[in-house]
User: Fold these one by one.
Assistant:
Number 1:
Amino acid sequence: MIDDLYYIEKHAYRTSIVHRLDARVKLLVTLAAILAIIAMPYSTKVYDLGAVLFALVVVLWAASRLSPVVYLRRLALIMPFGIFLIGFQVFVKNPYYEVFHPIATFPFGIEVYAESVQFASILLVKFIVSISFIILLSSTTRMQDLLEASGRLGLPREFTLPLGMMIRYIFVFADMFGKIRSTMETRCFDPLDRTLPYRYRLRQLGYTVGMIFIRSYEQGERTYTSMLCRGYGANASLQIRGKPLGAGEVSFFAGALALIVLSTVLIYLRP
């Protein structure tokens, strides 16, 4: 999990047309695409809108000059959660259909319905399109840039300050965990090594968890003391400077938003 955190942030520091776009533009385009695919009623029209939006993801991903393996790897990490929830829908009679036609029957009276399979496929399209835009956003935008963009868009300081602290110190915790893991490896300790006694492995993992907790507590105390020395208080806030959008960024935002809105409206109104 810690390695995935560095893996995601590493690609966000690359340089391309998409990486250089203002984070506000990418964030708003992502939100617009997710709202569009979610707002589309559950019908076969979702397939068409999903194809249009996914094509937009493909174009932007190609412009970012990132490898498709990056996208597939991150999608593979998220898909099991979506597949579990979506796959369960084929056994359920959902309220979007009035008549159900069973296509398979299993023991204990469990049946798979054609309408439920269609509903699950529509839900899968919505899930993949939404996750694809999120992967594109996080792979081309640094966490700090996303935080500043949210602040410029009006996110209250009660959210920006804690989020800024979390983003800043989550990597401190990652470094701490990496050092502890390296220490365990240099001592040839592997918690998955079945040649070691189970109770011994469990006891060492308990020591490790306790060590992480104590070091995190000590780091938190040092961080809080440093914040007080720098004037932190109830009225403290994260300073976010204003940043005007360039003509190219405005043009891209207008074009992407027009594509999303027009595609959604035209597909929705199509007989």
Number 2:
Amino acid sequence: MKIAVIGTGALGGFYGGMLAKNGNDVHFLLNSDYDYVGKNGLTIESDIHGTFNLKDIHVYKDINEMPICDVVLICLKSTKNSFIKNIKKIINDYSLIVIIQNGLGVEEEIAQLFPKNNIIGALAFIASNKIGPGHIHHLELGRLKLGSYNQEKTHLVDDLIKVFKTSDIDAIYTDELKYIRWQKLIWNMAFNGTCVILNCTTDKLLSNIHTREMIYELMRETVSAAKACGVNLPDDEVDKIVETTDRMKPYNPSMKLDYDNKREMELKYIYEKPIEHAKAAGFEMKKMKTLFQLLHFKQAEYFQD
């Protein structure tokens, strides 16, 4: 099985690195890190799996030089999704396209580009950051939940799950893609934006009685929005997510890192699309809409600078 990793950052670097470490045929597309990784290798510093460096791996700067692959892992920020049309050069009609991105609505847009391919949505429940050129720091967690968007599950999907598992990646398949997307949004919509606006890590939000209450309110609003959209998340889901986050190390969500580095934030799929979907179902996400508007203001500020 040939596996392409498009976007070798916090997610692609970790999952692709784990696959390569365990002997799989992985092909990494890099941009700014290409020269560094070509010379020094890809380093995964994992607080769970230990630190390892991968020097003998396939790295590319030009997608045209990559081989046709059985599986393409899309690990780009959703702000870079205009690039995805270029993967047509490395797939055939049977290739599996796996979108490891947060938010809502990404699969339908990509399925329009590749109607013959099996489009898989994947949610990474992980704390991982890129901390330098070709250097990924995996703090904790790592479960990968996958669900098919447009086709029945195939043998290739089963094979991929097995490959993940034999590479020490906790991967599971579900028929409820919409469910897991909303499930992940509970955390993402609450923590990503508030960490940006309040300039803090997740632990500080939960250690203060007032911001902790705010996080609960934001999460409950997301659960209500999901239910309006036909996704019946359990009432205790919020408590479980907060308990898990309480146990986590201090963490800067990806949107906070994007803001700190003056990169475009993933507002479209993490905030705009869920708010639109909920409104179409008759539910107004008033708190999230306010947070979304504040984030647009913050982003406009640094782009003007």
Number 3:
Amino acid sequence: MMEKRVKAALVSVISNTFLVTAKLVVGFLIGSVSVISEGIHSANDLLASFIALFAVKSASKPPDEKHNFGHGKIENISGTIEGLLIFIAACLIIKEAIEKILHGGEPLALGWGIGVMGLSALVNLLVSSYLMRVAKATHSIALEADAIHLRTDVYTSAGVFAGLLLIHFTGWTMLDPIAAILVAMLIIRAAFELTSKAFVPLIDTALSEDEVSEIKAIIENYSEKFVEYHDLRTRRSGREKHIDFHLVAHSDLSIQEVHDLCDSIEDHIMREIPHSHVLIHCEPVCCCEGEEACQAADLTRSHA
């Protein structure tokens, strides 16, 4: 059975292939810079969809000899590239719009442009909603980036649709490049937000405050079975979440009892925090008062 994330990425590729063809053909036929701009935007979306497809396939690979912690950050790299592509598309749209303002040119057969923009907004609304549902269910930053990318296209297509309608009723053709520039402004904003969200985890930022609070609450559920814990650290890698901390065990516990306690804590965290990998460094409580260091060896163990 095809993996859910890969299936969603393929749907995005197929829909964008159809839309980029339709927009560019209609845009050049009627001479509308805003429709052509939307075609460029969709071509950008198509490239981004291919990147997302590659990312979700690659990020799903298990850890190997060269990538001991897996391939999760490929999704963050994908999202960062998508954000940069969106920004480039916005610059191209602004360039085309300015040339249209300077040199003029009246779009013809507006009905075709209005039709393809309305269809584009509807298709991207459906596909982006589907991608976002899968992204949330599978914790995929690459699919979430693609969904945000397409949702931006919904707004811009709707804006061009409205602009062409106004041209049809008012005859003011200058609305066409103006609509294109407004489209570009929305795209630049989306590019900034997407790049920021995708790039930050590449420098090993911690999980959200809510997730860290949830982890602490889970650990404290077992407080009767250990002395204390410290040095809790978290980081995100794509959809993967890495968690480690030190646990001070009671001196009278056996290795097996400490092992079972860690298993219970790890299993609980992984149930509540999907795609998490937990590393616990166990330490015995010092039983000889005044000693600078405990003589017992530490037990370090991991479970993912």
Number 4:
Amino acid sequence: MLLMASLLGACMPRQLLVNSAADALTAQGQAAEEDLGLAREASAFYLKLSESLLRQSPGHLPLAESVASGFTQYAYAFVGFEAERLVSTDAKAAHLLNQRAQRMYWRAHRHAMAALNQTSPGFSAALAQPQASRWPVLRPDQVGVAYWAAASWGAYIALSKDDPDAVADLPLVGRLAELAWRTSPEHGQGALASLMGNIEAARPGGSAVKAAAFFDQAIAVSGGQNAGPFVAKAEAIAQAAGDRPAFEVLLQQALTVSAKHADLSSQIMRQRAQWLLDNADDLF
């Protein structure tokens, strides 16, 4: 018994140290960074270190959210975006980059779902139940992780359109996002409502009117200060409808908003909005 007590006593300070480091890394991951190049260079080390700590403390929801968001944003801004820019000139290189982005999206999703299952045992199994009454209940402190779990999952599926098994999971993505949205519809300054809009627009038989309403809700929730919903609405609604004037107005709004904020998400959206404007002739 004395031996067991000493072993437990040795473990407790180590776990406290891991949790303290996780808290510090989470705070660092939320720091503003306006230089995309510097953010890209620093991300690899930060993500590997954070991932290593998360494996030792899988139920640390803030760190899980930071890791999932980090991998998802890295894949979106630096890997998938580069593939889009290369596809017309080097299809093979673009394909390889998309495969890498796909792996990173799945990595983000895996970490986020592991945290949800750690903090709510059986979460994934409950999510897959056909009866709504048996779906999991999402706590407010799980919403951020659920958001990134759904966002990374949806992005993974978007790059897996030739895989029927992956595409078949799209309803589960919508279900997970809706659980988060019902719990905290204003999460992420409208980011969650915007995700709902993207899912509705991508869903077979989805309603463009309903999707647009989600995007408008996202813009209203942020007070028009989040560039993401403007870009998302431009691509999912205006571009899909062939409405170039609306497309350009929305992207100009995104540029104006993103210029006022130094956080990484705003700079990612600014970069994408400008690229979409520069390539509008090819998109319409």
